[in-house]
Amino acid sequence: LAKAVSAISSSAAPPRLLGAGHLASWASSHPGVVLAFFRHQLSDGLAFEPWLKKERAELAQFVVLPGRKESAVAIQRHVAHETPPSPILAVGGPAGSGASRLVAESLADSAARIVFVPDASRAVGLATSLVNQPVATAILVVDRCSVRIRAELHSVIKAESSRLRCIVLLDPSGPASHVDVELGKLAVPDVDNLLEFNFREI
Questions:
Q1: What is the pTM of this model?
Q2: pLDDT at position 133, please?
Q3: d(Cα 9, Cα 150) in Å, to the nearest integer?
Q4: CA 126 from chain center: how many Å?
Q5: pLDDT of residue 121
């Protein structure tokens, strides 16, 4: 193999063989990849691409609203481990505030690690499964999360915050609780911007 590579380019780096074991080892550390191609115990979640497709179904064009840039940065810093080692970031806002869409668009650079959990009642079991996989690194995004489930998630993953992070989209119909990133109702100018970018023909 080295001779064949040298014949192509004398300055090429030494060749390396990539086997199935290497691919399996890499994939096992990225649950989003496993979810997209193999499912297994992660079938209660969505990989990033189908989640993003769902979020873009009604409004294809994402508009970065001036008042929400700091919120997007806070989300990105959390998954980049630039914040104190709390494993959970709580995002809250009234129904229709666009919290799920903002989180999805903010996490595009971390797609391989993301598992979106649409049914919050399944989140603790999925988190437990990831804790039991010591090579797994993941970002769980849990929709309509209650205060109780949020506390259970924290208990499960708090010792693994160096490799597991969680973003909970708080259930707006639930009781008030601590919020790390709070979104308000969309103002009229914000709605106008969304309509202008997505329905130019109107």
A1: 0.77
A2: 85
A3: 55
A4: 14
A5: 95
